[in-house]
Structures are given as structure tokens and as C-alpha cells.
Known about the structure:
Structural class: mainly alpha
Number of helices: 5
Shape: globular
CATH superfamily: Histidine kinase-like ATPase, C-terminal domain
Helix content: 40-55%
Low-confidence stretches: 113-120
Radius of gyration: 16 Å
CATH architecture: 2-Layer Sandwich
Amino acid sequence: MSEQFTFQAETQQLLNILIHSLYTEKEIFLRELISNASDALNRVQFEMLTNDNVKDAGADLEIHITVDEENNTLTIADTGIGMTRDEVIENLGTIAKSGAKAFMEAMKEKPDNGSISDIIGQFGVGFYSVFMVADSVDVIT
């Protein structure tokens, strides 16, 4: 079953301000999405090691990147743990899910952009860098 979620206008404006103040290079989105895929692989690998009931316990841990120039799309797929519907809403539907206050405190402590980009993934905003280069994002999990 496919569901579609959109950001409200106010949220979209906030998202644009947030993204463009944090990122100076548009290509950063690729690092962030690959990092998210890698995190999913790490989580499934942990489950494989600690849980005997993991489906496809012998599956290869892979990240695939596909460019479709004709449709102007980029697909990043992984064999990681995936997310439930509620996890998608909670983690992707809430900007700075990991703690907006903690994020802002960390931002104050990191004056240069290089070190700021290193902390972004810890606070749930790295995914949103994709909106610097895309009008829409499909998350299939």
C-alpha cells in the first residue's frame, strides 16, 4: 500500500531555511543518503548477530545507486533493516527528530561549516539535504 505525505507550506519554508543555512555544497545530499543506507545495513547486521529470527539472515549487505537520466532520477537502495510506517512518519516527518534544542546547542559550538556537516546526521536533518536538488522524494521501505 502506497501512502503520500507532504510538508505543509510553513514547514517547507522552515526546511528551505534550515537546509540552505547548513549546507554549502549541493552534493552533500549524496553523502547523507548513503550514510542513511549504511546505518540501515549496520542495524540489520546487528540484528543478524544478535537475533536468531532474522529473515534472510545470510543476505548480502549492499547499497545500490542507480542513475536514470531519462527520468532525471537517482535511486539509492539498500538491503538494510527498513522502517515501519510509524518509523517513517516519526523519523522523516519530524524535522530534527533527535532533539532540536540539542542540535542548536551543537551548532553554536561548531563555528566552521566543515565540522557542522559532521554533526548533522546525529540530529535527524541530514536526509533533508536532498531537497536542495530534488522537488520530491519517494521513500520505499
